[in-house]
């Protein structure tokens, strides 16, 4: 009997939650796939098809957000900005292939960051970014100004591509710290190239980014799983308490009945 009660209690609470979660997850997955398809079309320079996919993304995004609250206000804004940039780049014939690709990648990464719980795609850019840091520092060491500016430009582009995803996955205070370092390196390039004290900002930026990549890629448990474990545990405790109380009450009444019969 106790097993039946426990099973019914868990089913009553867990099924509505799992159904709602699965439905929301499937909608996010759909948007994630559309953004990926749009990116693949840009890669092979089929811009018309990419444009249609991005317009379809917009239609689905608006429909889903009007039906239920799938995103926070920050996520809504971040996704909207990334989508508009990707669509504008694809539509503009004057925009280079590289910029179209970066814009489409940006949307793809931010959509994945919203959808994924573990190791989002943007973390896979760690190797490329760290390689650019190494090349930048080598240019300083070689006193090669042209190479230095070239690698700093590349670093800024790479940071810009993952920036919307960072805003989804990283705390605002860390983003502000990264932004301050990036802006300093960009605005005071000559100092960074010429002075060792200013070069420390480059080292500090590299360290901060490395720590963020490590933090995000750590194997953490799915928050939704913890919610289910806590919820189910609470249900079991409540059910056991209820069953125990009913048993106590039944024993007490039985004792009273026995006493009355004895009298």
Task: Please give a structural write-up.
This protein has 263 residues and is mainly alpha-helical. Among the domains are: 24-116; 129-219. 86% of the residues lie in helices and 0% in strands. Helix 1 (2-43) runs antiparallel to helix 2.
Topology:
Elements: H1 2-43, H2 47-67, H3 73-91, H4 97-115, H5 126-141, H6 145-169, H7 172-187, H8 189-194, H9 196-217, H10 223-262
Helix pairs in contact: 1-2, 1-4, 1-10, 2-3, 3-4, 4-6, 5-6, 5-9, 6-7, 7-9
Average pLDDT for all residues: 83
SSE class: mainly alpha
Main pleated-sheet profile = none
> Secondary-structure element sequence?
HHHHHHHHHH
Task: Please tell me what the overall shape is.
Answer: flat
Strand content: under 5%
- In helices, the fraction of residues equals over 70%
- Structure annotation, total helices: 10
Low-pLDDT ranges: 1-21, 225-230
Total number of strands: 0
Query: In terms of quaternary structure, what is this?
Result: single chain
Q: Radius of gyration in whole Å, from Cα? A: 28 Å
Distance between the termini: 33 Å
């Amino acid at each position: 009997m106790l097993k039946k009660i426990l099973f019914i209690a868990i089913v009553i609470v867990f099924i509505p939650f799992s159904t709602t979660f699965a439905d929301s997850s499937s909608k996010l997955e759909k948007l994630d796939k559309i953004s990926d398809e749009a990116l693949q079309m840009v890669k092979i320079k089929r811009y018309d098809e990419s444009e249609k996919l991005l317009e379809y993304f917009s239609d689905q995004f608006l429909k889903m957000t009007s039906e239920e609250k799938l995103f926070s206000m920050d996520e809504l804004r971040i996704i909207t900005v990334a989508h508009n940039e990707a669509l504008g780049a694809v539509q503009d014939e004057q925009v280079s292939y590289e910029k179209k690709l970066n814009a489409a990648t940006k949307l793809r990464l931010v959509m994945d960051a919203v959808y994924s719980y573990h190791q989002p795609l943007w973390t896979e850019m760690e190797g490329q970014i760290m390689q650019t840091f190494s090349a930048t520092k080598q240019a300083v060491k070689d006193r090669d100004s042209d190479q230095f500016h070239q690698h700093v430009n590349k670093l800024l582009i790479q940071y810009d591509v993952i920036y919307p995803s960072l805003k989804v996955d990283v705390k605002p205070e860390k983003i502000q710290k990264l932004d301050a370092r990036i802006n300093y390196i960009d605005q005071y390039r000559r100092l960074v190239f010429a002075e060792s004290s200013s070069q420390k900002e480059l080292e500090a930026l590299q360290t901060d980014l490395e720590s963020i990549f490590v933090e995000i890629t750590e194997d953490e448990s799915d928050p939704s799983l913890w919610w289910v474990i806590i919820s189910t545990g609470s249900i079991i405790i409540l059910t056991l308490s209820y069953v125990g109380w009913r048993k106590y009450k039944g024993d007490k009444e039985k004792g009273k009945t026995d006493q009355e019969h004895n009298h």
